[in-house]
Amino acid sequence: MAAFKIILCLLFYITFVSLLPLKATSTSRTQSEALIKWKNTLSQSPSSLNSWSSRNIQNLCNWTGIMCNEGGVVYKISLPNSSLSGTLTYFQFSSFPNLTHFDLNNNEVSGVIPAAIRNLSSIVYLDLSSNRFEDEIPSEIGRLTQLRYLDLNNNNLNGAIPVQISNLQKVLYLNLGGNYLTDPNWSDFSSMPALTFLGLYYNELENAFPDFILQCKKLTILDLSLNHLNGSLPKSIYNLAKLKELRLGTNQFSGPILQDLGTIPSSIGQLKNLRHLDLHSNQLNSSIPYELGFCSNLTFLALAGNSFTGELPLSLSNLTQITDLGLSENNFSGEISSELVTNWTRLVSLQVQNNLFTGTIPREIGLLSDLTLLFLYNNSFTGSIPLEIGNLENLLRLHLSDNQISGPLPSTIGKLVNLQSIKLHSNNLSGIIPADLGKNNPFLTTVSFSNNSFSGELPSGLCSSFRFELFTVNGNNFTGLLPDCIKNCTSLRRIRLDGNQFYGDISQVFGVHPNLTYINLSDNLFTGEISPDFGNLQNLTNLQLERNRIFGKIPPELGDLQRLGALRLEWNQLSGKIPSELGKLNNLFNLNLGNNLLSGQIPQSLGNLTSLQDLDLSANNLNGSIPTTIGNCVRLTSLNLSNNDFSGEVPSQIGNLLGLNYLLDLSSNSFSGRIPQDLSKLKTLQNLNLSHNNFSGQIPQSLATSMISLQFIDLSYNNFSGPIPNVGIFKQAPAASFTGNPNLCGSEKGISLCNIKSTTKKSRENKLIISVLVPVLSFVLIATLIAIFCIITRQRSKDIDEETTDTDTITFANIMNATENFDEKYCIGKGSFGSVYKATLPTGQIVAVKRMKTTSTDEVPSKNKQSFENEIRALTEVRHRNIIKLYGYCCKESRMYLVYEYMEKGSLGNVLYGVEAILNLDWATRVNIVQDLAHALAYLHHDCNPPIVHRDVSINNVLLEAEMVPRLSDFGTAKLLNPDSSNWTSVAGSYGYMAPELALTMKVTEKCDVYSFGFVTFEIMMGRHPGELLTSLQSSSTSPESLVLLLKDILDQRLLPPTDKETEQVARVLNVALGCTRVSPESRPSMRTVAQELSPRT
Question: What fold is seen in the domain 334-466+477-487?
Answer without folding.
Answer: 3.80.10
